[in-house]
Design goal:
Blueprint (H helix, E strand, L loop, with lengths): L13 H6 L3 E5 L2 E6 L3 H10 L2 E4 L4 E6 L3 H8 L11 E8 L5 E11 L2 E6 L4 H10 L6 E4 L4 E7 L3 H8 L12 E6 L2 E6 L8 E7 L3 H12 L5 E3 L1 H10 L33 H10 L4 E7 L11 E4 L4 E11 L4 E8 L9 E6 L2 E8 L8
Parallel strand pairs: 3-13
Antiparallel strand pairs: 1-2, 3-9, 4-7, 4-8, 5-6, 6-7, 9-12, 10-11, 11-12, 14-17, 14-19, 15-16, 15-18, 16-17, 18-19
Helix pairs in contact: 2-7, 5-6
Length: 368
C-alpha cells in the first residue's frame, strides 16, 4: 500500500503571503512564509521600526469550569496565582522527570476560564497531555482551528496600532491582555511577543484575519512596517536568548537545565515538582549559555560540538545563527556549568573547523 501524502495546512492569510511574494516553506505542518524581502531586512525592521507576523499556526486551548485554576496550576511549573484577570504568564508543561512537554503562555480570563497559547508543532500532543492529566472538574477544548494570530512588534508598534484604531494602546503593559471590538471585529490584544521589542499579539476569529492583516499593513506602510517571516522571527528570538521548543526545550533537557529556573515555583504540587526540587538542591550537570563568534568565522549551527580551549568536550549548540543586530555569529549552547561563565574561551565547530568563541552574558542583544 502506497503512503498517502501528508496534508499541509495553510493559515487564513496564505493568499496574502503569496501575493507579497513570500518564500514559503513547511513548518509544524503548515505552509508558512520563511521570508519576504530577506531575513536581515525584516529583522532590522523589527528592531528599528515595526514588523508584522502571521502566527496563525499557533494553538489555542481553552480550559473552563469550577476547577480550571487547579488544572492549570497542576500542569504548569510557574505560579498562576501571580496573575489575575486580564493578565498572562510565560510558563511550561514539565514532565514528571523535569523535561519539557512544551512552553506556552497562559491567559487568565477569569479564575474559571483560561486560554493557553501553545506551539504549533505541539498542539495535538499538548491537548492530549492536558486531557490525560485532567483530574479536575473542568472542560478542555482545542479551538486552534478557530483563531488567527497577527503579531505587531517593534518600537513603532504603539503608533501603528493607535492609527489602526486601538485606544490607549500605549498604556497597556506587557503580559496583559484585553478583549475589544474594532469595526465589528472581536480582538484579543495581548502585550506579548517573541522579539524582545515592544509589541502585541492580536488574536481574532479566522474570518477577521484578512481584514486585520490588510488594515495593519496599510496603516503601517508610512511607518516602515514590513511583513516578517519565520526566518527573522528565529534570529530575533535568538538575540534575546528566548528558548525554542525542540532546541533549548525537549523531553531530555530539564526546565532548570534550560536556564528557566525563574519560571519554577515550589509551592502547590505540579507535575515534575519533586524531580525539579531535587535538581534545584543538588545542582544541574549542564546548562544553557550563550557564545559569540567573530563574523569572519561564520555562524554556529544547531548540533555543532562545543569544546574547551584544550579540546575537551564541553557541550553542543542548541541554536545558532548570524546576528543581524550584532553583526557576528551567536549561539545558545548546552554545556557543563564549568564552561558557562561569561568571558570563558571555548571552541565551536563551524564548517568542519574548530573556531574560537567566547561565553557572553545573556541576552545577546539589548536596546540600551
Amino acid at each position: 500500500m502506497m503512503n498517502q501524502p501528508l496534508t499541509v495546512k495553510t493559515t487564513p492569510l496564505h493568499a496574502r503571503h503569496l501575493a507579497l511574494g513570500a518564500r514559503m516553506g513547511q513548518f509544524a505542518g503548515f505552509d508558512m512564509p520563511m521570508w519576504y524581502e530577506g531575513i536581515k531586512a525584516e529583522h532590522l525592521a523589527v528592531r528599528n521600526a515595526v514588523g508584522v507576523f502571521d502566527l496563525s499556526h499557533m494553538g489555542e486551548v481553552f480550559i473552563t469550569g469550577r476547577e480550571a485554576f487547579d488544572l492549570v496550576q497542576y500542569l504548569t511549573c510557574n505560579d498562576i496565582r501571580r496573575i489575575g484577570d486580564g493578565q498572562c504568564q510565560y510558563t511550561l508543561f514539565p514532565t514528571p522527570e523535569g523535561g519539557v512537554v512544551d512552553d506556552l503562555i497562559a491567559y487568565q480570563i477569569k479564575p474559571e476560564e483560561y486560554m493557553l497559547v501553545v506551539n504549533a508543532s505541539n498542539i495535538d500532543k499538548d491537548f492530549q497531555w492536558i486531557l490525560d492529566h485532567n483530574k479536575f472538574e473542568c472542560k478542555v477544548e482545542n479551538r486552534s482551528d478557530e483563531y488567527s494570530l497577527v503579531a505587531v512588534q517593534g518600537p513603532a508598534t504603539d503608533e501603528l496600532l493607535k492609527n489602526v484604531g486601538f485606544s490607549r494602546i500605549d498604556q497597556q503593559e506587557a503580559f496583559t491582555f484585553k478583549r475589544t471590538k474594532l469595526k465589528g471585529h472581536r480582538i484579543i490584544v495581548a502585550g506579548t511577543g517573541y522579539t524582545g521589542e515592544r509589541g502585541f499579539e492580536l488574536i481574532v476569529p479566522n474570518e477577521s484575519a484578512e481584514w486585520l492583516w490588510d488594515k495593519v499593513m496599510e496603516v503601517g506602510a508610512e511607518l516602515g512596517a514590513k511583513p516578517v517571516g519565520l526566518g527573522a522571527r528565529d534570529t530575533l528570538r535568538l538575540e534575546m536568548a528566548y528558548s525554542l521548543y525542540g532546541h533549548e526545550l525537549t523531553d531530555e533537557i530539564s526546565v532548570l537545565e534550560a536556564n528557566l529556573g525563574w519560571t519554577v515555583r515550589f509551592g502547590p504540587d505540579f507535575i515534575g515538582r519533586e524531580y525539579l526540587q531535587h535538581q534545584a538542591e543538588s545542582g544541574v550537570q549542564r546548562t544553557i549559555a550563550g557564545i559569540v563568534v567573530e563574523k569572519k568565522y561564520g555562524a554556529p549551527r544547531n548540533g555543532a560540538p562545543v569544546k574547551s580551549e584544550n579540546g575537551d568536550s564541553a557541550g553542543l549548540v542548541t541554536s545558532g545563527s548570524f546576528s543581524p543586530s550584532l553583526d557576528c555569529g551567536i549561539a545558545l549552547v548546552l554545556v557543563d556549568p564549568a564552561y558557562a561563565e561569561p568571558e570563558t574561551s571555548l571552541q565551536v565547530e563551524i564548517r568542519n573547523k574548530l573556531c574560537p568563541a567566547e561565553v557572553t552574558t545573556l541576552p545577546f542583544y539589548s536596546r540600551s
